[in-house]
Amino acid sequence: MAVSRVDGRDKVTGQARYAAEHPADALLYGVVVSGTITKGRIAAIDARKALAVPGVIEVITHENRPRIRSFDLFYKDMTAPGGSPFRPLYDDKIHSSGQPVALVVAATFEAARYASSLVEIAYEAEAHETCLLDHLERSHKPSRLKAGYTPPPEPKGFADEVWDSALVKMEGDYYSGVEHHNPLEMFASTVVRGVDGHLTIYDKTQSSQNSRWYVSHVFGLSKDKVTVRNPYVGGAFGSGLRPQYQLALAVMAALKLERSVRVVLTRQQMFSFGHRPETVQRVRLGARPDGTLTAIIHEALAETSRNEDYVEAVVNWSGQLYACEHIRLGYKLVALDRFSPIDMRAPGAAHGVHALEVAMDELSYELTMDPLALRLRNYADLDPTDGLPYSTKELRACYEQGAARFGWHQRPGEVRSMREGHELIGWGMASGMWDAMQMFARASAVLHADGNLVVSSAATDIGTGTYTAMCIIAADAMGMPLERVRFQLGDSTLPVAPVEGGSSHVATVGSAVQGVCGKLQKSLFKLARKMPDSPFAKARFEDAEFAGGALRLRAHPGHALPLAAIVAFDGAGRLEEKYMMLPNVLKQKNYLRATHSAVFVEVRVDEAFGTVRVTRVVSAIAAGRIINAKAARSQIIGGVVWGIGQALHEETQSDDRLGRFMNHNLGEYQVPVNADIHDIDVVFVQEDDRIVSRLGAKGVGEIGQVGVAAAVCNAIYHATGRRVRSTPMTPDKVMAP
Predict the structure, then answer these.
(1) Which class for 559: exposed (0-12), middle (13-18), buried (19 or more C-beta within 10 A)?
(2) What is the pLDDT, as a whole number, of residue 144?
(3) What residues does the Aldehyde oxidase/xanthine dehydrogenase a/b hammerhead domain cover (predicted)?
(4) Which of the following is catalytic: 58, 357, 650, 702?
């Protein structure tokens, strides 16, 4: 099914309101003052000039803020890693560059912004450490694990000894720089204070219930005193998993001043919190002359903050993608004076699979073997680490269909063998893999006597199409026209839904929606049997079906009752059901659950300038049953674009003398633009996974990016004969001898 977004009209006409667009009477505006040192303490704050600006109400600092909790436990949101979360305006300590040190609140945004430049702060600076490469020797194993993180498995076999004696071997070090989220909507919170003191908060977040949890705990407020809403989110992909500091600051101001307050971060301040962590990796592969892998060794070192152990499963996929008897994986952290990293699209896999897939390409040249043939030679039918079967795995079909669409069989094996004019042409490919997750969720459904169905859950739509997917699932289950279904999300008072992340929302919330519709079906059937002269009086539930907005007998479709008429018979004017979806953990734990992809890329490289154009991409995806082909294709295209950005453009440069990110704006932080993107072809391989979800669906948000940067790197090597082992692959690296 290919359906246009049900929320599309609201978005393109401006009817959709985002976090900073909700009105409130007598609204005040807060502007954050950012710290100018990387580590140390605040010695003194002079706010007199700022307070003298007409319209300024208050300058809130750690010295005059309202009371907040002191224990770490109260600051831990639902996705927090181990350690001590950052506490905005808690004390005089400075932990990282750009940390918020004050909030200027005024009657107008302009007054608050101007006054924020007048706040004078004196610091006592301390020596800082922000360079990962300078401090690799003090790495440590994560000691406090984030919920959902699986550490690398124990070594299998004797990987080091086998690698040492391998007939064919390769070894490579890979580096990935920091990347920052840059969604169109900047982080913002509008706190609307009711006359009874109730706070209704419009927040840019990937979970309204996570933000409510955070606010309630930090400020000691009962949950019935706080409602958080996020009906529309202008992009996130990990940046909104955790509540960002503007939320706490806006609530502080609302409580202190007993007024409604809005706080919006600037684009520069968007670079002052979580980011994809800087990572260093070493991969060693051993093989026989026929290409059979004998050893896989993959080790990674990544940054974290001083106060939290942020973790990613960077190396785990190297123990899952290819059959091998000897595997050793390692993952350590280096604590730096930076804000804690945060999940960014395909966290861990974007870096880890990249290193593995570039290493596999390097090995293919050592073997004088086609890169695709090498992957097929080592295709894993069972999880190589523990022998579990895959719930479904159509990666072989991804290879076959993607290669056929791309024309891979025409690829010459020699490097520098294709040229057109002043450009060298190269073809590269890579595999992709991402976890297929399912979590806990609730949903409710109300069928009204007018024939309209309203389904609800506190889910989130960050632009991925949640509204539309849930309407499709409900309409399909109830046999109703799509236009008769409405899905409610983005409100903390709705039935429980997990934080939107990890490509799990359709498998999780979608299964809850299908489940509640199943309960509604049975209730409707029971009512229908009681109606006068009912054709269902002696029927079994299995004899009935829902189609065309009616309940009808399968054997006699003409014997039908409109759903609206059944509800009207009940007399209440509405029929409601609720459902709690729990993953079948006992069944799922017996399988490795994942999505897969095969990415094929063509690049053209101007050897004189080192510029790279990605002119053609074919991405073949196996992600279970596709609920909305139009939105899913859009998601994969978006992932490919992001992968091209990872490969060629995105990196946040740090001046470690200052401990500060320097290119903290969209003028200098490079992202792909229209001229950088050419033909992108998406192939969905047929797959239906009833282990992952009752829908047969997995998820497509992350898998579209995984493997793209590696395929670009491999294509650059095929074009030029130059191997670039760090991202982004900028012209200076491509030109390097």
Answers:
(1) middle
(2) 62
(3) 13-127
(4) 702
